[in-house]
Amino acid sequence: MVHSIIVPGVGGSEATHWQSWLQQQLVSSSRVQQKHWDRPVLNEWVAQFVKTVAAVKAPVQIIAHSFGCLTAVAALAEHPELNAKVKNLLLVAPANPARFGESGFARHSVGNYQQYFHQLKLAVPTTLLVSENDPWLSYVDALQLAQAWQLTPINLGQVGHVNVAAGFGPFPEILNYLLPENNRQPVKPMHQVPFNLKFA
């Protein structure tokens, strides 16, 4: 059985967040825990991610949100030995790398992580879900990030940051993008972004 790993963003995912709802639907799952949920220092978050994934003996799928998406992408790039274990990576509403730096938020840092994340390559099957009006990542920036990662993003529409503030508790559509644990019936699929970029 595939084991699902939930990777929350800044603040963690509270009980009413869709990640918490999803975890209750899954038979085999765990969650990456951070020591400081309000201090997104990337190397510290990556270390906790690696510790969580390495502890699982089964194949895994990763469901990440916001800064958790950046954490997962950085961790898999920096620790390629984990890639063989990861059968599915789902990135939901990533945060903008330009808003973060070595001390956490970019405003507390010397620089930011935009260039770093735009040069990373993904070596696992990945799905990217984006929003047209996400306050943490503009739609234009989301398309640029998708291009850098060589992904065709799936447009969820005008759904904000896909969090509690945007009205997301239960999110049954997310099951369409997960590897099935059982013979679960898919929910009505969402539409893809028209995306005709050519990659070298």
Protein model, in words:
This protein has 200 residues and is of the alpha/beta class. The chain is 24% helix and 18% strand. The protein has five helices and eight strands. It has helices at residues 18-25, 42-54, 67-78, 114-118, 139-148; strands at 3-7, 29-31, 60-66, 86-94, 100-101, 104-105, 126-130, 154-155. Strands 2-1-3-4-7-8 form a six-stranded parallel beta sheet, covered by helices on one side. Strands 5-6 form a two-stranded antiparallel sheet. Helix 2 crosses helix 3 (67-78). The radius of gyration is 16 Å and the shape is globular. The model is unreliable at 182-200 (pLDDT under 50).
Mean pLDDT: 91
Could you list the spans in which at least 5 consecutive residues all have pLDDT below 50? 182-200
Number of helices: 5
Strand order of the largest sheet: 2-1-3-4-7-8
Query: Roughly how many Å apart are the termini?
Result: 36 Å
Order of helices and strands: EHEHEHEEEHEHE
Number of strands: 8
Q: Sheet bearing the most strands, described? A: 6 strands, parallel
Rg of Cα set: 16 Å
Shape: globular
- Considering DSSP H and I runs of 4 or more, what fraction of the residues is helical? 10-25%
Strand content: 15-25%
The secondary structure category is alpha/beta
Name a few traits of the molecule.
single chain, six-stranded parallel sheet, 200 residues, disordered C terminus, globular, two-stranded antiparallel ribbon, alpha/beta
Task: Quickly describe the structure.
The chain has 200 residues and is an alpha/beta fold. Helices cover 24% and strands 18% of the residues.
